[in-house]
Design goal:
CATH topology of one domain: 434 Repressor (Amino-terminal Domain)
CATH class of one domain: Mainly Alpha
Strand content: under 5%
Number of strands: 0
Number of helices: 4
Radius of gyration: 23 Å
CATH architecture of one domain: Orthogonal Bundle
Structural class: mainly alpha
Shape: elongated
Order of helices and strands: HHHH
């Protein structure tokens, strides 16, 4: 389990190690994974080293591992509170900030 992450760099390194471990467990070379995912070999090397990678590259790797459905665990969908659901109304689609009350003013003479 990946826990106690405090920086993006830490997360990238741990994800890179996970990608490498999964690739090895599937007996794939980096070149094999590159071919399966449609990415360059350099991209696979960079992901495994924990370097910058765009989101679609990570998704391509997950697809190559047949794990794309696990993206749901990254950010589970939030169900609305039962109190917000009403038969007549839909649950809120947006959040708006409440306006602050302006200071009341008086006419000065």
């Amino acid at each position: 389990m990946i826990t106690n992450l405090t920086t993006i760099s830490e997360a990238q390194k741990k994800i890179g190690l996970r990608v490498q471990a999964k690739r090895v467990s599937l007996s794939l070379t980096q070149k094999d994974l590159a071919n399966e995912s449609g990415l360059s070999l350099r991209s696979i090397v960079n992901i495994e080293k924990g370097k910058e990678a765009n989101f679609s590259s990570i998704l391509r790797v997950l697809l190559a591992f047949n794990l794309l459905n696990n993206v749901e665990y990254l950010l589970p969908s939030e169900l609305p509170s039962p109190l917000l659901i009403n038969e007549d109304k839909k649950f809120p689609q947006r959040v708006s900030k409440k306006l602050k009350k302006k200071n009341e003013w008086e006419w000065k003479e």
